[in-house]
Amino acid sequence: MIDEADKKILTLLQRDGRLTNAEIAEAVGLSVSAAHRRVKQLEASGIIKGYGAKVERSAAGLSLLAYVFVKLESHAEEHLAAFEEQVNLMDEVVSCSAVSGGGDYILQVVARDMESYAEVALKKLVRLPGVKDSSSHFVLSTMKEAPGWPLSV
Predict the structure, then answer these.
(1) pTM
(2) If the chain, 153 residues long, is cut into consecutive pieces of 10 residues, what is the mean pLDDT of each piece?
(3) Contacts of 95 (CB under 8 A, 6+ apart)
(4) Is the dihedral of CA 49, 50, 51, 56 positive or negative?
(5) Cα(20)–Cα(36) distance, rounded to whole angstroms?
């Protein structure tokens, strides 16, 4: 279980993963060694999965973002496993979650433009194992993008 100091550390690191232990310690009110020890414990426990740069999607040439709802023909274990295995091989699919409601999965898909998205949709997505139906929803603008998980809820 994480305590309030850990939550503060995690919130800080989600906003800026390049903070030094001294900066974390000062912001949280700990000694540098205590802050370092806590960060290492959060890493070792798997709560911190890694560090990376936040890349501006459109500046990197990926101007199209779509959410694709996918419904499968069958929920047999082998069909689900085959679908998930193939989705994990697609670089264009940046996230895939099993969901409740009208579909079985929601995929977050990026592409350079509509033409490249059409190629992905028509040549890859609809040909994934067991896909019965799919529905694409295109992001027109993003009003909020959190820097990390809201640990205070």
Answers:
(1) 0.86
(2) 94 96 97 97 97 93 97 93 96 96 94 97 93 96 92 86
(3) 107, 108
(4) negative
(5) 9
